[in-house]
Amino acid sequence: MPLRVSPSRYSQVAAAALAMLCTIVLSGALVRLTGSGLGCDDWPNCNSQKFVDVSSTHAAIEQVNRLFTGLVSASVVAAVLMAYLRSPRRRDLVLLAWGLVAGVIAQIVIGGIVVLTGLHPLWNMAHFLVSMLLVTCAFLLERSSRLDGTVRLWRDVPEGIGAAHASLVVAAAVAVTTGTVVTATGPHAGDENAARLGFELREVARVHSTSVILCIGLLAWLLWRTRSEADRRGMSLRQSLSILGFVAVAQGALGYAQYFSGVPVLLVAIHIAGATAFWLAVCNVAFAPRPDEVLPVTAVR
């Protein structure tokens, strides 16, 4: 009898891939924050003599992050293989799983370019932003894998707020992008000799904070606008907005705290972890299956 994977088991596999992709964002950030970005100065070898080298602290930290990429790759490969074995097989899940494969390959290539260009800040920015695209794809895979049947995941919102809802998602993407500009301008380059963007840190921080304030303003308006929504659609949106609001305000407060305290490593690490949580909350606001079109996987026999 051919091997078959149940919908609920596949949902667990998709959740594991999402967790791994979120975790590697933080592990990669720790490489940069500990100054270990060139602990391995070659690619794909650690250096010109060894493929694996843990002879120094910086090399060990970078090596562990590279090896962790193997675990991420394994989780993504499992998501693809089991998408074909899932019963019933769904084309949308197969395509999303292959999207993860494409993203991981892109990240491996970009990671090599980051090292070979001496941690150029633009490539570091690209590394993080592609990570957020991967997180988005994994979120969609995990969310849709819970449900029976191909679904339309863009959230169906009450009339009159569609433009504001889309604008919120765009504003959030701008906030994340400007955040990478601040990071690429600031002191934590991954190596003391790595280049920085030639902007004034105060100015790019001001642009970033403005984009965050705009995002929170749109969020507050949407919360006010949906205050009287009593149907399932409106209540689901309001709950997602509330979660995003909590994360956004916490991130904003943390951003000001790290700026005025001299950008300490610990706060930056927490802020990067928070940025991933923020983007997951944005995905939760942007994407949700329409409740009249889907059934939970627990209902599938």
How does this model look, in words?
- The protein has 2 domains: 1-148; 151-296, Four Helix Bundle (Hemerythrin (Met), subunit A).
- It is flat, with a radius of gyration of 21 Å.
- The protein is mainly alpha-helical.
- The chain has a two-stranded antiparallel sheet with strand order 1-2.
- Helix 4 packs antiparallel against helix 5 and helix 6 runs antiparallel to helix 7 (232-260).
- It has helices at residues 7-33, 57-85, 91-116, 121-145, 162-185, 201-225, 232-260, 265-286; strands at residues 147-148, 295-296.
Mean pLDDT: 88
Question: With helices defined by DSSP (H or I, 4 residues minimum), what is the helix count?
Answer: 8
- As a whole number of angstroms, the C-alpha radius of gyration is 21 Å
Main beta sheet strand tally, sense and closure = 2 strands, antiparallel
Distance between the termini: 18 Å
The structure class reads mainly alpha
- Form type: flat
Q: Let me know the number of strands.
A: 2
- The overall number of domains is 2
Helix content: 55-70%
**Main sheet: strand order:** 1-2
